[in-house]
Design brief:
Helix content is 26%, strand content 25%. By secondary structure, the chain is of the alpha+beta class. The chain has 2 domains: 39 residues; 91 residues, Gamma-B Crystallin, domain 1 (Sandwich), CATH 2.60.20.
Length: 143
Amino acid sequence: MYSHSTTTRTVTRSTLRTAALGTALAAAVLTAAPAAGAATPTPTPTSTAALGACGPGELCLWERPDFGGDRQVHELAGTDIESCVALPEGSSAQALANRTGRPVTTYQSAVCAETGEFETYPGSGTWVPKAPYRVRAFKIWEY
């Protein structure tokens, strides 16, 4: 029969071996992925031009996907907080960047109706190259 301390040591050694094996496996996967070309590069400040130029404190909306076409820029100074802001009639956006520092909800509806599609994006620096619907209005939230 095993004593309690022998069982505890065996379980502890087994747990430590399993943890060490898991750590080694995770390290091998993480270091092998870039070599295999499986990892997607993370955007860096030097690659933000490819993401679409949008300055700090701005909400930028582009008429075409992948930050193409005309760009509209909205700042907090000229936008009512928590109010529905419709894009000019007949226009819409298919890409956006939120650098306002506040959450922004975009709407498929030009009157911010929640019966259509809508999505809220954090304000800490969010780039969306292909919006899931044509954006026709937005709200900037207090927090």
